[in-house]
Hints:
This protein is mostly helical and 99 residues long. The chain has helices at 2-36, 43-59, 64-86. It is globular, with a radius of gyration of 17 Å. The model is unreliable at 90-99 (pLDDT under 50).
Amino acid sequence: MQELRVEIDALDTELVTLLARRAGYIDRAITLKQRENLPARTKDRVAEVLDNVRALAASRDLDPELAADLWHQLIEWSIAREEVVLGDAETPRGAEVRP
């Protein structure tokens, strides 16, 4: 069991590293969205990402709804991170937004 736990811990380290890398891409998206005057939330893109994750999970024998639930939380966190800078539908750009 100890060997298995070591492998799980190593995988957790890889997952956190990848999530941090993904967060860096979200920060880059903020810059691009500012430049192109795009909103933080794009419903079509959210649906596309969730559909892609469900399909990918199913192809890897992972419960697609589990993957979609995890990604939904990740997407909402990402959008909230973007909204701090970009504002949301109720907060005009340039208004003070607090995290």
